[in-house]
Amino acid sequence: MTATRLFDTPFGRMGVTASARGVVRVALPGQADALADLASRAGADSRDADAVADRAARELAEYAAGRRRIFTVPVGLGGLTPFRRAVSQALRQVPYGHTVTYGALAGRVGRPGGARAVGQVMAHNPVPILVPCHRVVAAGGLGGFSGGAALKRRLLALEGAELH
Fold first, then answer.
1. What Rg do the C-alpha atoms of the chain give, in angstroms?
2. Which end of the chain has fewer CB atoms at under 10 Å, N or C?
3. What would the pLDDT profile of 82-123 be if each residue is shown by its tens digit?
4. Distance CA 83, CA 103 (A)
5. Spatial CA neighbour of 154 closest among 138, 140, 134, 137
6. Residues paired with 3 in a beta bridge
7. Distances (CA, A) of 79 to 6, 55, 124, 142
8. DSSP the chain
């Protein structure tokens, strides 16, 4: 069972879907309508999933307002390959206000030369911001982001991160 919450932030409307074990989906501004469609087809919410979804919505709204730097809500990373799980876990260790290149992140998980593979993990990250794929940048610039370049720049600016 899952629970979904839609909420407004300074960046636009966002959404989360959570199970009792953790957040399984974050919808960035412009993606929240898809999440609402998913919620309309979901089964009954469980009390535990409700609590996780409420907490995630609150923490993400606090982050977007500049009042939160660390997330405490659990993230459901079930069903990931070992490589995707390792990349996601390594990325969660990149501190607020810092960036890492795709290549450096690949090196951290024992795949030097695996920058493109890391990029694919980032492109399919179901929980952006909680697994902060916006903090992963290209060696020569910004790099991609599922929420678009403008949102990535705004998130990095919110955190005070500098592009090198």
1. 15
2. C
3. 999 999 999 999 999 999 999 999 999 999 999 999 999 999
4. 14
5. 134
6. 18
7. 24, 23, 13, 29
8. --EEEEEEETTEEEEEEE-SS-EEEEEPTTTHHHHHHHHHH--PPPHHHHHHHHHHHHHHHHHHTT--SS--S-B--TT--HHHHHHHHHHTTSPTT--EEHHHHHHHTT-TT-HHHHHHHHHT-SSBTTB-GGGEEBTTB----TT-HHHHHHHHHHHT----
> Does residue 68 contact residue 62 with C-beta atoms inside 8 Å?
yes
Residue that the structure tokens 């795949």 belong to: 111
Q: How far apart are CA 35 and CA 17, in angstroms?
A: 8
Give CATH for domain 82-159: 1.10.10.10
Residue range 63-86, pLDDT digits in tens: 999 999 999 999 998 888 999 999
Domain boundaries along the sequence of the chain: 3-64, 82-159
